[in-house]
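Schema walk-through. Below, the input block comes first and the output block second. Nothing else is stored per chain. Lengths vary across the set, and this one has 185 residues.
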Amino acid sequence: MTRLYKFDEILNDLMDYFILGDPNYLLTYKNENTLPDDLLTELTTEETGDKVVEDGIIVPLSGVENFPYTIYFNLSDTTPELLKDGNKLQVRQDGYCLKVENEEIFLFTMPYLRKFTEEQIENLKKNRKATIKLENGWYSVSILGGLTIQKSELEPTFEFIIKPTIDKPKYTADIAYSFAIRTDE
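--- output ---
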């Protein structure tokens, strides 16, 4: 069973954000809480944004520069890619929690939140390739960011260290943390 998943050339759609999560679970949350289809405005201007992060519905990455990224989903117990020789760790944030309700997670972008409907989720699933299948349940998530060697060059990279937990892990991450990666090293 593969424990390390790699995706190349992942773009942030010109907004300085990535979002990790189970989009169908976010839609269920939106519907149960009678939130507007414009989740982008709701999550960025109301306390709802902090709540969905602290409740493990999404994991946000703010400050993401506009580069093509290599993305790793690491479910192994081995040394993370960004901590291996030759790679350059620049940012790290531990303490996220994530709940999976539909056996898959996606790394997606802010524009999908503008009109967050079932149709939009189908678009997201067709167009976003950074996705993995996971068993339903709780996970702790750490995010590493920096530069990794890809085809003999250092390229911007994010690595998600994802570990299953029995219960909801304590949320201790800094919601305002900036995941800006510098390429001039």
